Amino acid sequence: MSPIGLNHFLGLGAVLFCLGAYGVLTRRNAIAVLMSLELMFNAVNLNLVAFARFLPNLDGVVLAVFVIAVAAAEAAVGVALVLSIYRNFRHIDLDQVDTMKG
Amino acid sequence: MIFDPNPVAFWLLAAMVTGCALAVIRAHKLYHAGLALVGTLFGVAGLYGLLQVWFLAGVQVLVYVGAIVILLLFAIMLTHHMMTPNLKTLSTQPWTAAAMCLMLLAVLLGGILSSTWQTAPDTTVYPTWTSQSGFQVAEAIPSVKALGFRLLDPFTLPFEMVSVLILVAMIAALAVARKPPTPEDPAEGCEEVVP
Amino acid sequence: MMRQFPANPDLTVEEFELNMGPQHPSTHGVLRLVLTMDGERVVRCKPVVGYLHRSIEKMAENRTYTQVIPVTDRLDYCTSMTSNYVYVMAVEDLADITAPPRAQYIRVIMSELNRIASHLLWYGTFALEVGATTPFIYGFRDREKVLDLFESTCGARLLYNYLRIGGVSRDLPEDFCERMLAFLDEWEPLIREYEALLDENPIFYNRTKKVGILSPEAALTYGVSGPNLRASGMARDVRREEPYAVYPDLEFDIPVRTEGDVFARYRVRMEELRQSARILRQCAEKLPKGPFLEPQPLRLVLPEGETYVHLESPRGDIGCHLVSKGTDKPYRCKFRTPSFCHIEVFEHLVRDCLIPDIMAICASFDVVLPETDR
Amino acid sequence: MEPIFEQFVRDLTGGFQIPFWAPMLVSLGLVLAFIALNAMFMIWLERKICGRIQRRLGPMLTGPKAWARFSMWTGGWFQTPCDSVKLLLKEDIVPAQVDRFGFMLAPVLIFMAALAVYVPLPISSTAHGQPSPIVVAVADLDIGLLYVVAITTLTILAILTAGWASNNKYSLLGGMRAGVQILSYEIPMLFALMGPMVLAGSLSLGDLVLVQHAGLFGVPFLGWFLVPSFLGAVVYLICAVAETNRPPFDMPEAEQELVAGFSTEYTAMRFAMFYLAEFSNTFVVCMIFTAVFLGGWTLPGFVPPGSLNLGFFHLPYFDLLAGMAIFFAKAYAVVLLLMWIRWTFPRLRPDHLMTFGWKFLLPLSFLNLLICTVLAAVQQIYFGGNPG
Amino acid sequence: MSPDEFLPTLKTRFPEVEFQLDPLNPRALKMSASGVPEVFAWLRDAPEAAMEFLEFSTAVDHPPDRLELVYSLYSYTHRHRLVLKVDLPRHAPTIPTLAHLWQNADWNEREIYDLFGVFFSGHPDLRRLMMPEDWEGHPLRKDYSHPNLTPRPD
Predict the structure, then answer these.
(1) Are C94 and C120 in contact (CB under 8 A)?
(2) Looking at the complex, does the CB of residue C8 fall below 8 Å from at least one CB of chain B?
(3) Which of B100, C48, C108, D162 is the 20 to 30 A CA-CA neighbour of D28?
(4) Domain boundaries along the sequence of chain B
(5) Residues D226, D231, D233, D234: what is their CA dihedral angle, to the nearest 10 degrees?
(6) CB-CB contact of B49 with B57 (8 Å)
(7) What residue in B sits closest to C259 (Cα-Cα)?
(8) Does the pTM of the predicted model rise above 0.80?
(9) So what's the pLDDT on residue C4?
(10) Which is it for strands E94-96 and E53-62: parallel, antiparallel or unpaired?
């Protein structure tokens, strides 16, 4: 098998990112959308780490740590929003959450 | 080189990542999507491991699997009646979305393939096994210590900002998810029985 | 494949229904609680009983007065002696029979020993409900010794069928008092040990203090009696209110706590153990010689009339309403059982509690299901 | 593992070059065997200790009768093997309306987590034929402690999945209780472990032990992190009990409340996996406590010789064996402590548990981290470098 | 206070209700059904009665036409007991509930409804208590028969 280079990682990242984007676009359930978002975060992180290792520069890893921290914050607020939506609408179907009233 | 396990590992992990990611976006039961997400995250953690960034792999598992996914699973449990089958989670325009995503993928892959990178030699990235010297660790493993110094030296401000961000997110999550106070206060202890 | 259950329209977003029992490790037999939960918090609780209904009252109408005694054993298997006693007392009241003094003392000894056995059983299971395993073994170990005493007296360890109309079925064994006193000497210091396991433990303290508070007013309107009533600050005890048998000759205190919470109910029972030991020692001292049974005809015919007698069982105020039409069988035999009233209280007490509190509260009332369902 | 293993094989066979995958397979087999045997022994011990505390004998009948006559500690040796055989031979029931995928995945996940967590645990060291001491572990990872904590999260996932997939309200409640409990106690636990991390300046468990052996401020008796990081040790121990769902923190499977919590619907082999994982995890936290706070396989001021020569008998690898003996003695001392706690305490209430964790343990672990940081700074300034 | 002491008080207070002493039970008073629940409310609240404790309530079946309800009240304050007995027609026994006076009456009345078929008007939750919900008949009635119920041989 041929050795694995930077492009392999970047390609995998691209695929993962597009899968995530597809999920965000097609899923109607709020939690499923959040999950797809996490996929996109991971794709980005994968690229960052691959760059950090192949173009020897540790900053990519540091950035990835920051991304994970931000993802955690995003997930917390996202889940809180989902719960709040569920409490008010009794479902979490994003297509039907179209009023501006809480 | 007698046998190089690195490509095998990469392709296996890549298959795991994409397969699980597909399951995440197509699964009918949300909980299964959550479990598939765990698979993806472990796959990505494995890739970090392959790149010898073990610290990040650990953080990935700790934060993503241990906190974020658990949080999402909790949300699933709280918002769905147990075992609701055949969740309607797909929107009405999957083909448009698929076309858009494929186009995006084409653009990205095109960009990746057309670029040339000044990459370091593979021996600095992966561990190797050779017939002459057996197991060789990667030449430049980013140590936890180096990463720590990096966080504290040029990235001090972002580091602190992230901690503020997390604090704000925590408070915001609490404020949003809290139950609105009900008009009648829950009774404390014994309430008087009026016969 | 999978059935979708229609959602209960009465429930709000967060609520769901949980069926606790009739098969559940901690509902002591077959109590069923239909709980409406909001997460771990109980919104509503509906106790459902009747899974152990054996129609004891109907059976009693079909038997002669003597034949009913073994049936009363099955009223409350933890304290068969007192169930025997209350029925025998009702018959004696109606037939105007007085048991000889020795029988009276033996009956009191048996009731108090049975109170100890029952409270020890309660101590073990109650501790188990709050998650402590060791007290369970302690309680059961010492209960065995009481059961040994019963076995030497009447041959049975659980369902004694010992009391008879006009006395008891057989005299105490020769060395009974010595063995009983030896047991008391050995066992009384152990009460301290039971308390040490739970009282001084902050976890236990947190779980029982201010949990399941029953106010005296609520206790009365629900017909709560016995240690549970005394834990709510009312020093009511049938042995004091309407003394029966030889209780007027005996010295004992009525332990009372004012808090009315789970901890108070626990403390009252622990104190009652000591008081029972005190009563037993006095009985051993005063036990008169003489006949133990005033023999009655096998087919006893009671004059027409009706009566209600009650006494203090370990669980509370147990009573028997007996109606006779001048035949050899009871016309109606109604048992007023304490657990029947205590279970009804759950509905009121368990509201707004957490699941673990349900266990602590239910266990603290010491309900016995056969007594409830009869 | 690899260097010692290679060394060992070379010693035995006279220079045989082992393939690269051999150490992994061997360590996998060793860890599996260890988990099974150790859990069996621990279950037997638990029942004996429980019996002792409750003034009874515990299992006495299965096993050689002659031994049982001698004392309570020699009876009932075959009890747990018999129990395991029973569990394995029982009918494996998958209830009709469960989610099959999740139901089958959960025990595998929890067992995988229990297995994987052994990787960085160091049990001894040896200098046999090596220039400097080599730590005996499956792999003394650079991120040992982080790895251990990260793997623990798989346990939450498994329990949550078991609770959800069982399609039973008691299971679901048990699973959610477990999730909340482990998640909340992971935070003070991590902070409690950070004290020793700061003191040692490393995440590797092997390094932590070596640093403790060297001592703090040059005083070997101060070396065990139990001393400078006492608060951390207490917090860690409490959190560890909570993480392994042992009484008094066994709310997720509280029999009197939730029947058996997340494992209500499980039988036979799958139940055995939960059970085995629970005991394995208990021992793992004791091992971590030993390595992080009790100086691992070392004793202050004691360095075992590399080999023991008794004249008639030459024992190579003596330092390795002595280290292991010391390590397991310490770990079992902690196990006994946990058992003592288990059989004397009532169970906490979930809300008390949360309050205790967030309002008491977490500030305490912060304080511990502060103390350790100050001590580490003093060490750095006045004694130069990290201890060790 | 004993029943014969209660009798004049009750008679003057509730002239429209019939009271009489029970020859069979010295602690009991017989009264007509029209006095439920007012008499009970008075007995509970009046300071001289203060019957805060409903010990039990039950029924006795007297075929062919009479069904007797028995209420046993006790006062911890005065340490006296009063048993009140109410006769009902056996074919259609209906009586107002006491569940609003004593919580205890709730289940007692459900049990009587279950086993004797007495209908308590105004009861909050009148369901069978002991027997299964779909049970037919009222087992404690004297003429109740069931295939599994055989008379005990003498």
Answers:
(1) no
(2) no
(3) D162
(4) 1-84
(5) 130
(6) yes
(7) B190
(8) yes
(9) 38
(10) unpaired
The single-letter code of the amino acid at D252 is P
CATH of domain A6-96: 1.10.287.3510
Looking only at the bridges linking them, the beta strands covering D124-126 and D134-136 are antiparallel
B·D CB contacts under 8 A: 82
Q: pLDDT, tens digit, for every residue of D26-63?
A: 888 888 888 888 888 888 888 888 888 888 888 888 87
End-to-end CA distance of chain A: 57
Q: What is the DSSP letter of E72?
A: E
Q: What whole-number distance in Å separates Cα of residue A46 and Cα of residue B144?
A: 18
Evaluate whether D126 touches D136 at the Cβ level (below 8 Å): yes
Burial class (CB in 10 A: 0-12, 13-18, 19+), E16: exposed
Q: Supply the ipTM of this predicted assembly.
A: 0.77
The beta-strand segments (E) located in E16-52 are 19-21, 28-31
Say whether the B–A interface has 3 or more Cβ pairs within 8 Å: yes
* Both structure tokens of C257: 């706590």
Q: How far is E2 from chain B (nearest CA, A)?
A: 26
- Extract the residue ranges of chain B whose pLDDT is less than 70: 1-3, 80-92, 122-123, 128-140, 179-195
B31 touches chain D (CB under 8 A): yes
Do C and B touch (≥3 CB pairs < 8 Å)?
A: yes
Does B79 contact A31 at a Cβ distance shorter than 8 Å?
Answer: yes
Beta bridge partners of A93: A29
Cα–Cα distance measured from residue B184 to residue B171, given in angstroms and rounded to the nearest whole number: 25
Domain enclosing residue D377, as ranges: 93-383
pLDDT at D332: 92
Nearest to A70 among B33, B75, B165 (CB): B165
- Number of compact structural domains in chain D: 1
In a domain, D11, yes or no: no
A–B: how many Cβ contacts below 8 A? Answer: 236
E104 touches chain C (CB under 8 A): yes
Contacts of B58 in chain D (CB under 8 A): 143, 146-147, 150
| Angle, in degrees to the nearest 10, between helices C134-154 and C101-129 | 160
Distance from CA of A83 to the nearest CA of B (A): 6
- Contact (CB<8Å) B63/A68: yes
D262 close to D98: Cβ distance less than 8 angstroms: no
Residue in the structure block whose two tokens are 């977490």? D362
**Identity of the residue numbered C81:** M
**Is the peptide bond preceding residue E64 cis, with omega within 30 degrees of 0?**
yes
CATH of domain B1-84: 1.20.120.1200
D321's CB contacts (< 8 A; 6+ apart) are D124, D315
The amino acid present at D137, given as its one-letter code, is: A
Helix spans in D215-358 (H): 230-243, 255-258, 268-293, 318-344, 350-355
Question: What is the DSSP annotation of C343-365?
Answer: HHHHHHHSTT-BHHHHHHHHHHT
Q: Using CB atoms and an 8 Å cut-off, which of residues 4-23 of chain C contact chain A?
A: 13
Helix (H, G, I), strand (E, B) or coil at B186: coil
In a domain, D67, yes or no: no
CA distance D254 to D163: 14
Helix, strand, coil percentages, rounded to 5, for chain D: 65, 5, 30
By Cβ distance, the residue of A4, A58, A71 closest to B147 is A58
Residue C249 DSSP code: G
- What are the tokens at D229? 């990081």
Query: C38-87 pLDDT, tens per residue?
Result: 777 788 888 888 888 888 888 888 888 888 888 888 888 888 888 889 99
* Burial class (CB within 10 angstroms; exposed 0-12, middle 13-18, buried 19+) of C328: middle
Contact E109, E94 (CB under 8 A): no
Who's near D334: CB < 8 A, 6+ residues apart?
Answer: D237, D286, D289, D290, D294
What are the extents of the domains in chain A? 6-96
Give the type of residue at C86. Answer: V
**C130 interaction partners in chain D (CB closer than 8 Å):** 256, 346-347
